[in-house]
Amino acid sequence: MPIGNEMAIVEVEDVTKDFGKTRANSKRRPAVDGVSLTIDHTTRLGVVGESGSGKSTLARIIVGLETPTSGRVAYRGISVHHMTPSDMREFRKNVQMISQDTSSSFDPTRTLRDSVRRPAQELLGVDKSTADALVDETLALVGIAPWMVDRKPTDVSGGQRQRIAIARSLVVKPALILCDEVVSALDVSVQGTVLNLLKKYCDENKAGLVFVSHGLPATAFVSRDVVVMRHGVIVEQGSVDDVINHSKNLYTKVLIEAYRGSARPLIAKHTSVGPPLEEAVR
Amino acid sequence: MRTKTEGTHRDDDAATSTPASTAVLDVENLTVRYKVADGDFTAVDNVSFRVAPGERVAIVGESGSGKTNTCLAIAGVLTHPNAVIEADAITFQGTSIAQRKRKRLPQRIPGLAMVFQDASTSLDPVWTVGSQLVDILRATQQISYKNAKAKAAEWLLKVGMVDHQRVMKSRPYELSGGMRQRVMVALALAGSPRLLIADEPTSALDATLSRDIMQLLVALTTEMSTGLILVTHDIHLAQAFTERMLVMYGGRIVEEGASSTLDTTAVHPYTQALMRSVPTLESADLDVLPTIPISATGQHDPAGGCSFLPRCDKAHDACAVPPQRTELGGGYGAACWLAAAESELALTAPAKGA
C-alpha cells in the first residue's frame, strides 16, 4: 500500500524500538522512540547525538537490519521489514549502508576485490568482467589503486579499508546512502577526503544521504538538515544553520558549546571537577 | 575536591627548556624498528623530547606516524617479538629505563601510568571496578583493605561518578563507554603516578564527553603535578588541553611548538595542513573540505629527502635533502627547510624577523 510522498525513497513512520529491560538495567528506555522521517534523493540529513541516543539503531532499522517494535519503514511504499526477495534485491541495490567498523564488515578470507565485486554481480546482475570494470571505476572515485584490492582486508590500513567499504556501497550506484559513523575512526586528514567524496557522489548522482555521527562539524559539512537525537527521541530538527546558530534545545546547546569551546583553551576557566555533563543535562 | 584555579605554578618558557636533571622524562634518540619480511620498518626514528614535572605535552600525528609506538616503548609495554627498541637514553625520574632487561611480559614502571583509547578491552572484565581500584591502591601504598576501599570510592567520586557505590560493584562491561573511560582515569591516577601517558583517551567518545574527560585529566594531573603525555590525532583537542605539542610524521618529530599559539606560529607545512583539515562548525559553509593529499598507494616513503615531500604543497628543490631540526627559540623547533630559511632571514634582518 503506497503512502504519502511520491518522491520519497524511504519513509519512516512513528518507529519505536524497545530492546526490553535487563537485569542490570531495569529502567531501560526504548532505543528509538516514535521517530518519523521522510527521505528522498535531495535529502542530506545529519543525525547527531551522543552514544546511546538511538541514532545507529535508527539507521539499522531503516536498512532492515533491525525490526522495529512498532511503526513502519517503507521503501517506495513497500514495508522494508516484509519484503519479497525480489523487492529486497531492488531495495539493497538502491539503499546502501556504510558502517564504522570496516575491520569486521569484510570477509577476512576473501580479497577486497571479491568483496567489492560481489554486490555489483549480485545486485546489478552483470558478469564478472563488467563488474570488475565497475569496481575499478569506483575505486578511482575513492582514490584507491586497483592493485590494492587484491589484498586481504587485514593487509590495508583503516583509512584505506574505509574508502574501499565506501566503494563497495557506491559500486551499485545507490539512490540513498546511510553512513553510520563513517569517519569517526579515521585520521582528520583522511576524514576530509572521505567527506568530500561522499558529498561529491551524492551531488553528482542525485542520491540521498543520511549521515549518522556524533561529530557535529563533519555532519554540518555534508548535511543540509540536522536532527539531534537524545534517548531515542528527536529533540531538535532543522537546517544546519538553524540548529548550529539558533538551537533551542539545551542538549544541542551543550553539544555545540563543546565544539566552540574546544577551539580555545578551557583550562583557565576550569575551577573544579563538577558533576559530569551527562548528569547535569539529564 | 580541590583544584588549582589558575593553570600551574610553572613558567611556560622554563618548562620547555627543562634541564635534563629536573625532567620527569627524558628521551634521547629513541628508535623503534620492526623486523618485517622485506627488511626493517622504522616506526619511530630518532625521537628526542623531555617532559617537565606537571607539564602537559601532546604528541599529534596521523595513524602510522609513530606516536603510539613512541609511548609504548617508553612505558615498557612494547613487547612485540619483532620490535627492536634503541635509544641513547630514556630517563624516567632520574633512572635510566632504556637498559632494562627485555622481557616478553610488559613490565610495570613505578610512577608511570597509561590510559588507552579502548576502555572496554583494557579493563579486566572478571573483576569489579572496586576490586581493581583497591588492588592498585594497595600495590602502590601501604594501606589496609578497608582504607583502600574508602579511597577507591573517593577516587570514583573524583572522576565524577556520583553513584560510586553501584560502580564499585559493577564489572566494566556493565558501564557505559564514558563511565568506563572515567574508571580508566581513576585506575591510572590512583597510584599517584609522576607521568601519565594518555593514548587517544577520548577519540571513541562524543564531543561533550570528550571535553569532560579531558578537563578531568587536566584538573587531576594539575592537582597532583603529574606530567601528561596526550597522544591524539585531534590537533585542536591537543591545543586546548596541553602546553607543548610535538607533531610527528613518518616516525619523526617534525615540529615542536607552544600548543596555544600553534595556529599562528606553525612553520611546518604538515602542521599547518593538519590544523586546516580538522572540520569545524564553520566548515558547514564550505563546498570542499581542505585535505592533506594522500597517495593512492597509501605509501609516503620517498627515496631520501623529506618524508612529507610527496604530500607537501610547499615542496621545493631543497626538500630532496632531509631537513634537520631548526631551533625556533624557547625550546621549539621544526624539521623543515622553510623553518631553516625563516630563521636565517630572522638572523640577517632581525627587525623584520617574525
Overview of this protein structure:
The complex is a heterodimer of chains A (282) and B (354). The model of chain A is unreliable at 263-282 (pLDDT under 50). Chain A is an alpha/beta fold and 282 residues long. Chain A has helices at residues 55-62, 85-94, 112-124, 128-141, 158-170, 188-205, 216-222, 240-245, 250-262, 277-281, and strands at residues 10-17, 32-39, 44-48, 70-75, 78-79, 95-98, 176-180, 208-213, 225-230, 233-239. In chain A, the strands form two sheets. In chain A, strands 6-7-8-3-9-10 form a six-stranded mixed beta sheet, sandwiched between helices. In chain A, strands 2-1-4-5 form a four-stranded antiparallel beta sheet. Chain B is of the alpha/beta class and 354 residues long. Helix content of chain B is 32%, strand content 21%. Chain B is built from twelve helices and 13 strands. Chain B has helices at 12-16, 67-75, 119-122, 129-140, 145-158, 164-169, 177-190, 207-223, 235-241, 262-265, 269-277, 337-348; strands spanning 25-36, 39-51, 56-60, 83-86, 89-92, 95-96, 112-115, 195-199, 227-232, 244-249, 252-258, 326-329, 332-334. In chain B, the strands form two sheets. An eight-stranded mixed beta sheet of chain B has the order 7-8-9-3-10-11-13-12, sandwiched between helices. In chain B, strand 5 and strand 6 (95-96) form a beta hairpin. The radius of gyration of chain B is 21 Å and the shape is globular. The model of chain B is unreliable at 1-16, 296-300 and 350-354 (pLDDT under 50). Chains A and B meet through helix 5, helix 6, helix 7, helix 8 and helix 9 of A and helix 7, helix 8, helix 9 and helix 11 of B.
